[in-house]
Amino acid sequence: MLRGWNNPEQAGGSEAQGKWINNPHVLVSPERKFISALDRLESMSTRRDFLNLAIKGSAMTAAAAVLRGNALSQGNTGEGRSMNSTENSADSNSGVHYKPPFRFGLGGVPLGNEFAVVTDKDAYAILEAAWSAGIRYYDVSPWYGLGLAERRYGSFLHNKKRSDYVISSKVGKLLKASKAAKNRELFPFSPSPNDVIFDYTASGMRRSIEDSLQRLGIDSLDIVFVHDLSSDNKLLPTSWQEQFDVALKSAFPELTRMREEGLIKGWGIGVNTPEPILRVLREADPDVCLMASQYSLIDHKNALNELFPAVRRKNASLVVGSSLNAGFISGSPRYNYGKESYKIPTEFLEKRKRLREVAANHGVDLRTAALQFSASPDVAAALVVGASSEQQILADYTSMQTRIPAEFWAELKAEKLIEQNAPTPA
Predict the structure, then answer these.
(1) Is 337 a catalytic residue?
(2) Which stretches in the chain have pLDDT values below 50?
């Protein structure tokens, strides 16, 4: 079921090549094959010269189709980016590491009935609204509703042309149906019959991807994130460090092999804490990591000053999730995730109050500001948001196109509500 390169235009002439390269779904694996061959060369300068020569014609063919994203390209200056486009720049995949070509995506947590019941009809309407708005990046996981979210995404996406969108899912949690399943303890609003089994081995990676493809009804994933190898995951059978060691020896090398084979475009880890991302950047070769609940208006100092420099050094990137801290910034009575998310620190409540006051002074919607803030760093390849209604995803998409006055961001820095070196939207 996992596919390699089978595009009929792959061996065609320049016209076919242009169509193929312009497709964001197939940007990286040919280059991976170049890199694999180039690993045998002794000189880095030789490698770079050969790679530049090999991809030069393809890059020039693709440039005309994607030049409109050039304004989004930026170096590691810490300056904010324009929010006017939902696509990354033309050179976003010109390096070794893959990054999603779309800067805004729909996350799958609410469609797994994480917080409340979302009906199948409403879930389909949310996906339909996202697609109609032009959203083409989708992030999901077997964990969300223990298979429910993937089935819902598949119900919608399996009828779409696979090359028209990018999708990421998670690995490390296998699902097993059982009459004695304890699923209701984990997801009380999901009708799933499944239990979860943690498996960070090489075979577990293959099995997890195959299972996800079956639930989704599609033939490939673009990105896979190794899920919840983190200290906040209290369900792991042993410590997160021990499970990470298993993944380091087994899962990570296997995902790298799958990437080199062209079966996936890129891989990383998806976690709610910074330590695992820092470690995987040091000890493995990820492309892009999902950083959830770590870079928001409420809490961003550590990610800004510790995590982002490490990502830049590795020439990797991040998908930013939970920019509203599971809805807290927009008024939810919880902060982030977990059974004790209702225990909100007093300082966070006070900071939200002050943020609201500054936003009101400038006529700014705080939710809009929070989304744009989390999407601004140069290392943020994409922002994914969850939505429990079609109105919500349309509002979030609109927020990314809304102009916020520079004076608002200046006052936040003057009041020390955000870090002085935090990038803000241009």
Answers:
(1) no
(2) 1-78, 90-91, 94
